[in-house]
Amino acid sequence: MITPNVADGVHLLSHANVNCYVIEDEQGITLVDAGLPTMWPMLTQLLEERNRRPQDVKALVLTHGHFDHVGFALRAQRQWGIPVLVHAGDAYLAAHPYRYKPQRNRFLYPFTHPRSLPALSRMAAAGALAVKGASGTRPLGIGIADELTGRPAVVHTPGHPDGHCILHLPDRGVLLTGDALVTLDPYTGRSGPQIVASAATKNTEQALASLDAIAATGATTLLPGHGQPWKEGAEAAVREAMRIGAH
User: Fold this and answer.
1) Calpha distance 10→19 (Å, rounded)
2) Around Cβ 197, how many Cβ atoms within 10 Å?
3) Which of 41, 50, 147, 163 could staple 87 via S-S, CB 3.0–4.6 A?
4) What one-character-per-residue DSSP string does 217-234 give?
5) Is the CA virtual torsion 237, 242, 246, 247 positive or negative?
6) How many distinct structural domains can be found in the chain?
7) Digits of tens for pLDDT over the chain (247 positions)?
């Protein structure tokens, strides 16, 4: 599914419960996350519909290095020659997107949470088990990223993995939350603002602590890595995520 202007100048690509985003302005385009491998045609279709060329894409930013955010990163890197940026804490993970140890066993977890099985099966069918990592990434700095479309404020939000970051577009009232806060957890099938389950999170206590940084943005619209956009404000989303807590 392609949703143009899901927020001001931000377009959504969504497939198999995985989201990635295209930030656009007059100067060009920044991609945020690379979803799953089969989402590449959706990206090229969106560019055509927006009368954009690959040369207009300035960078691909990874909120973190997990396989369902790295999907087409290597292809974009090789085919279009665009830089891939990720926090230094996740550079190794982006190159080896399956080599992480969550708080709980991610292979056994779905058997105790059967509602997750349809979502995880769709992800697998969309290439989640065959993602190639992206090496040669560039470090994503913290603070205002002048070189990126929309000049987002990059905020470090560790916990899901160590190098997770969110991107705040204050002029647009938009926050791209990656998996620091989602509105659908593929590992439980539960909807609503929350952190991702311990089956895919390194440190749930740290992930909950990082919600403070999300609330502090005061953003109106939250665009998560999984689930529907949240348009009731960052503070309300964090309150609900804290109520649900770790799982």
Assistant:
1) 12
2) 24
3) 163
4) H--SEEEESSS--B-S-H
5) negative
6) 1
7) 999 999 999 999 999 999 999 999 988 999 999 999 999 999 999 999 999 999 999 999 999 999 999 999 999 999 999 999 999 999 999 999 998 888 876 655 565 556 666 776 787 777 778 899 999 999 999 999 999 999 999 999 999 999 999 999 999 999 999 999 999 998 888 999 999 999 899 999 999 999 999 999 999 999 999 999 999 999 999 999 999 988 7
Q: In terms of Cα–Cα distance, which of 36, 46, 61, 11 is closest to 164? A: 61
Q: What is the CATH number of the domain that holds 49?
A: 3.60.15.10
The side-by-side arrangement of strands in the sheet containing 221-224 is 143-144, 153-156, 165-169, 174-178, 221-224
* Other beta carbons less than 10 A from residue 146's beta carbon: 7
Query: CB neighbours of 149 closer than 8 A, spacing ≥ 6?
Result: 23, 24, 25, 27, 28, 29, 30, 58
Q: Which domain holds residue 77?
A: 2-244
Q: Are 133 and 45 in contact (CB under 8 A)?
A: no
**Amino acid sitting at position 6:** V
- Those residues with Cβ within 8 angstroms of residue 188's Cβ, 6 or more apart along the chain or in another chain: 113, 115, 116, 197, 247
